[in-house]
Write a structure and sequence with these properties.
The complex is a heterodimer of chains A (184) and B (456).
Chain A lengths: L7 H5 L3 H22 L3 H18 L9 H26 L13 H6 L2 H9 L3 H12 L4 H8 L3 H30 L1
Helix pairs in contact in A: 2-3, 2-4, 3-4, 4-7, 7-9, 8-9
Chain B lengths: L1 H16 L8 H44 L9 H7 L10 H19 L19 H8 L13 H15 L4 H5 L4 H21 L2 H4 L1 H6 L1 H9 L3 E13 L6 E2 L2 E11 L4 E23 L3 E16 L2 E14 L4 E26 L2 E19 L11 E5 L7 E13 L4 E12 L13 E13 L2
Antiparallel strand pairs in B: 1-3, 1-12, 2-4, 3-4, 4-7, 4-9, 5-6, 7-8, 8-10, 10-11, 11-12
Classes of the chains: A mainly alpha (184), B alpha+beta (456).
Chain lengths: 184, 456
């Protein structure tokens, strides 16, 4: 379902009904984005609230070219990045888990898991790993772009992603072992 | 391995592609509330700022235009009339001095015809050479009779001038007798004199009408000159705000303002103002923050397996190192000082009166203050840049809307200079600090010291 672009003009004029309709349309999807960048639901709500306020404030700057949903999503991601920038920096200096090889990443486990289960694992990642993983794997940003957004080097971004993968792999293996134990 | 990574990446993407959980309902309520607070005042503030800027601009332009188009008249043209105005009995008579002037004028007229007059006769009492003025005036006035008698002279006085002139014509010196002026020429000459009197009398300024009062009473002169005029004031004022909040002590602030005053008439004035002020808040503030400090690590048992060696079952504990960070919400109470630099604008309407050199005034009007710069102390500990900070501090908002009411006492220290002291009361409609708990009306008092220069 596409967003009715005729609502953009009323949005630019701060029409409250148009704003609510806009929110109702985009909120679930954007909440999903915010949850992926957050450690818990409360923080996701904070990010989404700030993100929507930014969208309403800067919608005057939207020129109509490109995907409207893409513009909203970028605004939300940028809000998440601003929200966690300071915490990301700190986490990079203290890697929580040792980096390991991602060679044995089991795709079958991922296939069998629901989005909520995967979200739970992603949310448990340190904030730095989580942010790089989200930006690169889900949002499709390059390491160069991530480096510019987060104020880190391209190599640091790659390293963080590698560690994020290793961490995810461990967690998934743990889940697999638990399931195996449960099945015995 | 690359292919596997790509596959995993795609799996994650697909899983989250349609991931759209419903957010709690209160999120929209929060957004709507924030929009209500944030958007409504924007146009209101902008409009208010524009109106004030427009008013100040119009008044400044108006004043500039007035100053440029109201230059004082040259004094030299008025000199001959001085003789008329200096009558000791308030009547217009012609004395010996006037005779010489009239004679000189007549001589010039004749000289233009017969070249009899000597050059030194063409100088009036102030030494102003009239040879360049008289022909032009003669040309414009000749053949035209007086239609509008002088405003300050009665018809009787005008008749006196006629009679005196006619009488004087009979006593002209030899040069005049030789000129053989006929009656019509004589009358024409009288008309010229009368017309000059009319023209010059109409040009008479308060400089001639009130020479004594102006020199003897500086303030009165200044006050009278204030009518329809401008004055420029420079004001310095310490101000103090009455704040009902225990946690915040508002220090004195200091303002420096430039305020042009336009006197609509001799009493009423309008005074736009612009200036800067420096303000400080000092007090104990509470801050809630998360520091995420690294506290240590522990080995977490994530799995237990059992190995059988011989007949003995041995548990194997699989552990993982877990780092522990401080996630407790900290509360700190500290004393801090916030500093602000304001742009102050105001537009007051007032009444001014004077007694001798002393004057008093009352005024009232709106004011709007804008924060230009601020420096706030950080209430949380050093190296806490990574914290998730959520603190409730009194932070001054911008703009601040208020009303001011003041009384002034002034004293004329020189012809154009006044000093003034003005106790002032300020009322801020929604306080001066942001946040709901601080948005109550506040009052403040100030004591302004001013130096005022009357421009014209």
């Amino acid at each position: 379902m596409q967003f009715d672009k005729s609502l953009i003009e009323p949005l630019k004029q701060n029409n409250r009904k148009a704003q609510e309709a806009f929110y109702r349309f985009f909120a679930p999807k954007m909440f999903g984005v915010c949850l992926r960048f957050s450690a818990d639901s409360e923080e996701a709500e904070d990010i989404m609230q700030e993100g929507f306020i930014r969208v309403f404030r800067y919608i005057k700057d939207y020129r109509g070219d490109g995907s409207f949903e893409g513009w909203v999503r970028r605004t939300m991601v940028n809000t998440a990045i601003n929200h966690y920038k300071r915490r990301i920096k700190r986490s990079f200096t203290k890697p929580i888990e040792h980096a390991g090889s991602a060679a044995g990443f089991n795709a079958n486990i991922v296939e069998q898991m629901s989005a909520n289960e995967l979200l739970e694992i992603i949310s448990s990642l340190p904030v730095g790993y989580r942010t790089v993983f989200n930006l690169n794997i889900i949002e499709g940003y390059t390491h160069k772009e991530i480096g510019e957004l987060l104020g880190i080097s391209e190599n640091t971004s790659k390293s963080q992603l590698s560690r994020a993968r290793a961490s995810l792999q461990k967690k998934l293996e743990m889940i697999k072992k638990k399931e195996n134990l449960g099945g015995q | 391995m690359e292919a596997n990574n790509e596959h995993i990446n795609n799996l994650f993407k697909q899983k989250f592609e349609d991931f759209a959980p419903q957010p709690p309902e209160h999120v929209w309520a929060n957004i709507a509330s924030a929009l209500d607070k944030g958007t409504a005042p924007v146009w209101y503030h902008t409009l208010a700022a524009k109106i004030i800027a427009l008013l100040v601009g119009v008044i400044v332009l108006w004043g500039g235009y007035w100053l440029l188009t109201n230059k004082p008249q040259p004094v030299k043209k008025q000199t001959p009339v001085t003789a008329y105005q200096n009558s000791s009995k308030g009547k217009t008579t012609i004395d010996r001095k006037v005779d010489s002037n009239i004679g000189a004028t007549t001589t010039i007229d004749n000289a233009s015809k017969k070249s009899h007059a000597k050059p030194e006769h063409n100088k009036n009492n102030n030494g102003v050479d009239k040879t360049s003025v008289a022909p032009a005036m003669t040309a414009s006035l000749s053949g035209r009779h007086l239609k509008n008698p002088p405003a300050s002279n009665t018809r009787e006085e005008t008749s006196k001038i006629h009679d005196s002139q006619i009488a004087l014509n009979g006593q002209q010196d030899d040069d005049l007798a030789k000129a053989d002026m006929n009656q019509s020429e004589a009358m024409s000459g009288i008309d010229k004199i009368e017309s000059k009197a009319v023209a010059l009398n109409n040009d008479v300024t308060p400089l001639h009408l009130k020479p004594v009062t102006r020199n003897s009473n500086t303030h009165e002169s200044t006050a009278k000159k204030q009518t329809g005029r401008w004055a420029l004031g420079l004001y310095f004022s310490p101000e103090f705000i009455f704040d009902p909040f225990d946690s915040l002590t508002i220090q004195n602030s200091y303002a420096l303002k430039v305020e042009p005053t336009y006197y609509i008439n001799s009493h009423w004035f309008i005074r736009p103002g612009v200036g800067v002020s420096y303000a400080r808040d000092k007090g104990f503030v509470k801050a809630n923050y998360l520091s995420w400090d690294y506290l240590g690590s522990y080995e977490d048992v994530i799995n237990v397996t059992f190995d059988t060696v011989g007949n003995t079952v041995t548990p194997v504990y699989h552990t993982q190192t877990r780092d522990v960070y401080d996630s407790i919400l900290h509360v700190t109470i500290s004393e801090e000082t916030n500093r602000y630099l304001y742009l102050q604008t105001s537009m007051v309407f007032g009444y001014h009166n004077h007694v001798s050199k002393f004057g008093w005034s009352v005024y009232a009007g709106p004011q709007v203050n804008f924060i230009l710069a601020e420096k706030r102390d950080n209430p949380v500990k050093e190296n806490s840049s990574t914290v998730y900070l959520k603190y409730n501090l009194a932070q001054r908002k911008s703009p601040q809307y208020g009303l001011k009411l003041g009384v002034g006492m002034d004293y004329a220290v020189a012809k154009r200079w006044l000093i003034t002291v003005e106790p002032e009361y300020n009322y801020f409609f929604n306080g001066i600090n942001g946040g709901d708990m601080y948005s109550k009306p506040l009052s403040g008092i100030g004591l302004r010291f001013g130096l005022i220069y009357t421009i014209k």
